[in-house]
Amino acid sequence: MAKDYYATLGVRRDASQEEIKKAYRRLARELHPDVNPDPETQERFKDITQAYEVLSDTNKRQMYDLGADPFSSGAGAGAGGFGAGFPFSDIMDAFFGSAGGARGPRSRARRGRNATIRVELDLAETAFGTTREIVVDTAVLCDVCQGSGAAAGTHPDTCDMCHGRGEVSQVTRSFLGQVMTSRPCPQCGGYGSVIRNPCLECSGEGRVRTRRTIKVRIPAGVEDGTHIQLAGEGEVGPGGGPPGDLFLEIAERPHPIFERRGDDLHCTVQIPMTAAALGTILTIETLDGAEEIDVRPATQAGQVIPLYGRGVQRLNETGRGDLLIHVNVETPAKLDAQQEELLRELAKLRGEERPPGKFSPGQQGFFSRLRDAFNGR
After folding, report:
1. Closest Cα partner for 205 from 136, 137, 151?
2. Per-domain boundaries in the chain
3. Confidence bin at 303 (pLDDT 50/70/90)
4. Coil, strand, or helix at residue 78?
5. What topology is assigned to 5-97 in CATH?
6. Rounded to whole angstroms, how far apart are CA atoms 162 and 38?
7. What is the rounded distance in angstroms from the CA atom of residue 352 to the CA atom of residue 318?
8. Coil, strand or helix: which one is 86?
9. For the chain, which end, N or C, has fewer CB atoms within 10 Å of the first or last residue's CB respectively?
């Protein structure tokens, strides 16, 4: 033959099929027209494609080594053609990698699933943090087979159908020529090995279910809906695979007095109008214990008295929120004769027997809005 296909690919005459494939892929990455549009390079690309088409086919290579024309049987269309044996898939592999080579046998060990547990806490526990013992029903590594899934004293055997590759290949003919397809081995399921004597403890799963207790530290500042991730505390995967993660979902119980808004706490205290007018000292229970607050004279309804730093600890930060006390002034509903007389005397002294009242703009009624609409306001 006029062309030395071995020299074209830069391999020895006794090169293996794997060496020929590697040489072609290396050259294809350098000489492909999409990479190098030079006309001479394109001709070289056609030459290496034709050389690979011959040397990668056992029959054509044998005919070529014997000095015969490998294309005489009509199996190929020549250089640059799409006849039988055209290495279209190998060109794709040269640029995008070989999917078939990357598969191989898959591991029996797979990562375990994540799990979520709801944990209910009181306000004080979320504010200052706490330690809880969590009971988890989960999968753990089998102590008998240590995750292999095989009975004691045995081990998985190499699959005799795929010979440990985990996949079987089939060559078919199409309009593109010979096409090789691969699929998981039906005998071993793609693992490359077969467990003929499964472990009696885990039934070949490599893991068993059990109940265990985990001691967990809940940080200060968590709130309703917070998720805490415990890495590696989830269930062990099939085949003794690495465990997933455990997530704790915090559910904060409602407090009978305090309402939480972020890191601040809010509560409402009701005082009689005499205390609001004259001022007083109140004792209030906080998360830190009982504290006295000073209600100043002339305190109005709706006024807020802050206790700084008496709220919730900020999560992963220093400092705490505030406790905000909303004052609600009570007007007496029932008065005896003496109390009524005293209040009338007070109103007289203050000139409030017939107060004019103080009005401020409020929400308009329907007819007022309708009137303004017609007036163009």
Report:
1. 151
2. 5-97, 115-156+195-252, 259-350
3. very high
4. coil
5. Helix Hairpins (1.10.287)
6. 44
7. 51
8. coil
9. C
What is the residue type of 196?
R
Same CATH topology for 5-97 and 115-156+195-252: the answer is no
Cα–Cα distances (Å) from 183 to 21, 158, 175, 195, in that order, read 21, 18, 21, 20
What is the topology classification, in CATH, of domain 259-350?
HSP40/DNAj peptide-binding domain (2.60.260)
The continuous run of DSSP H or E covering 139 comes out as strand 130-141
Superfamily holding 115-156+195-252: Urease metallochaperone UreE, N-terminal domain (2.60.260.20)
CB 146, CB 154: distance < 8 Å: no
pLDDT, tens digit (0-9, with 9 covering 90-100), for 158-176: 999 898 888 888 777 655 5
pTM of the full predicted structure? 0.60
Measure the CA–CA gap between 38 and 293, rounded to whole angstroms. 88
Give every strand in the sheet of 259-261, ordered side by side: 259-261, 264-272, 323-330, 304-307
Task: Find out whether 137 and 209 touch, Cβ atoms under 8 Å.
Answer: yes
- Tokens read off for 191: 């693992």
pLDDT tens-digit readout, 253-298: 999 999 999 999 999 999 999 999 999 999 999 999 999 999 999 9
| 3 state SS of 88 | helix
Residue 273: phi and psi, rounded to 5, are: -65, -30
- Sign of the CA dihedral 172, 175, 177, 180? negative
Cα angle 59, 64, 65 (rounded to 5 degrees) comes to 100
Nearest to 165, CA basis, from 188, 198, 149, 197 = 188
Token pair belonging to 184: 């998981």
